[in-house]
Amino acid sequence: MEAAKIISSQKKNVKFLVVGSESYGEPEYAQSIYKLADSYNLKEKLIFTGFREDVPELMGAIDILAVPSHAEAFGNVAIEGMAAGKPVVAANNYGLLDIVVDQKTGLLFKVKEANDLADKLITLIDDRGQREKLGNAGLQRVKEVFDEKKQIKKLEQRFFDLIEAKKND
User: Fold this and answer.
1) What pTM value is reported for the model?
2) Cβ atoms of 100 and 108 closer than 8 Å
């Protein structure tokens, strides 16, 4: 919300799509987000979708994917965004570091640093060429690194290697 407030003060023609719902047991957190959005006068700029199953269609509707997670074990949504050819702006922590390559497939910002997140998003809002470059590179990375068939083959090979090592013990 902080980054959206900053961006909205500088860019009048932006909208933010907030996809997903609160985690189990966090209804107070969700309410605090809605109240914060109201207090920042962002009601006209934000679209809260709640839980959605049509993620590919939503990816088609955006220009940039922001993943501001404070802690993300593995950022599937970042891979989904990259697979859709979208540039990703993600927090520089945990599993996101294994997915987004800073300045190549997306931009990383400091965790919980709204100004840094806003700066990175504004950079991409202002530079269509950079958005396209990062989006294309992200799509290529997904094809090379996160392809499902390639991952399954690697996993199978690892199992075979472990079985062979066990036999040799």
Assistant:
1) 0.87
2) yes
Q: Which two tokens stand for residue 64?
A: 């940039």
166 pLDDT above the threshold of 90: no
Report d(CA 157, CA 127) in Å as an integer.
42
> Which residues are within 8 A (CB) of 137 and not within 5 positions of it... i.e. 6 or more apart?
101, 104, 105
Report the alpha-carbon distance of residue 57 to residue 17 in Å, rounded.
13
Buried b (16+ CB within 10 A) or exposed e, 78-102: bbbbbbbbbbbbbbebebbeebbbe
**CB-based contact 87:135 (threshold 8 Å):** yes
Q: Are 47 and 19 in contact (CB under 8 A)?
A: no
pLDDT digits (tens, 9 = 90+) for 50-106: 999 998 999 999 999 999 998 888 889 999 999 999 999 999 999 999 999 999 999
Burial string for 41-58 (b: 16+ CB within 10 Å, else e) reads: ebeebbeeeeeeeeeeeb
Which regions of 11-166 does DSSP assign to beta strands (E)? 16-19, 46-50, 65-67, 88-91, 106-109
φ and ψ of 113, to 5 deg? -110, 90
